[in-house]
Amino acid sequence: MRSRGLGKGLSSLIPGGVAYGQSTSLPEAPIEKVVPNPKQPRRAFRDDLLHELAQSIRTQGIIQPLVVRPVGDHFELIAGERRWRAARIAGLTRVPIVVREADDAEVLKLALVENVQREDLNPIDRARAYRSLIEDFGTTQEALADALGRSRTSITNTLRLLRLPPEIQEQVASGAISEGHGRALLAVTSDPERQRLWRRIVDEGLSVRETEDRVRKLTEGGGGTPGAGADGRREAAVADPFITDLEDQLRTSLGTEVRIRPGKDGAGMVTVRYYDNDDLERILELLLGKPSATQEAGPGV
Known about the structure:
By secondary structure, the chain is α/β, with parallel strands linked by helices. The chain has helices at residues 47-60, 81-90, 104-116, 123-137, 141-148, 152-160, 166-174, 179-185, 191-204, 208-219, 230-237, 241-254, 277-288, 293-297; strands at 28-30, 34-35, 66-71, 74-79, 94-99, 258-262, 268-272. The strands form 2 sheets. Strands 1-5-3-4-2 form a 5-stranded mixed β-sheet. The protein has a two-stranded antiparallel ribbon with strand order 6-7. The two termini are 24 Å apart.
C-alpha cells in the first residue's frame, strides 16, 4: 500500500489559518496571563511526555509560539496548550505568543485542527476531533482525509470507535487496549458478550489477532467460551506453517481476519472478514488501490 504522506496539509481546512515559524520577532506574555481554552478537544496529556517537552524547552526554549486570543485582561489559548503546560513545568515566566482575533467557533476549529495532526493523540480524542470537524463545521470525510494524507476509510474506521460503550472508549483512550482491539469489539453486537470479551482482553492480555479469533467464533455461532473449543485447538495443531504465514501477512496488510482454506485438488478459498459496510469499503480500497465504486457512489457520512 502506498504511503500518502501529509496530503494538502491541515491549513486547507482553514483558509488563512495560523502558520508557525514565519515571524522572526514575536511578542511575549507573562505565563500567568495565559489560560487554557475551556473547550479544548484534547483531554489527555501524558505526564512523561510533558516532562520531556519541558526539558527540551529548558534548553532550547519554545520554538513554536502559542496562538492566543485576547479575553478581558488575559489571553486564552487557541493552540499550544501542551507547550503551555510544559513551559509551566520548566519554570518559564514569559512565553512567545501570536495574538489572533477569533470567535468561539473559530477557536474550536483551530484547536481541533492542531490536535488531529498530532501523532500522540489517543484514538478516541482523535475520533472526537474528526466528528466535531465534520458535524460542527461541515468538513467532509474526503476533505479531512486529503488534508491528513490518510484514506477516507481510515477516517471512517477511527470515527467508528465512538460507537463503543463509554467504558471501552476509556480503555482505548488510556491505552489499556488498542485501537485494533476496539475495532474488533465493534463486531460483537451483544453487550454482555462484548463486555466479557473486553475483560478477557485486559485480564489475559489477548492480542488483536486472538481477539479477532474470538469475535469470529462468537459471530459465527461457535458456541461455548470463545477460542476454547476443541475444534480450534485441533485446527491450530494441523495448520500448515506456510498457510499460517500467508494468513498473517494478509491479516496485517488488510487489518482484518483472513482465512486460507486449501482444497484437495489445488484449488481453495480465501475468506476476508468485514464487520460492516464501512469496513468493506476500507478493504476494497486497499485491494483495488482506489476508492470502490460503492464508496464513490454513496453519500459521505
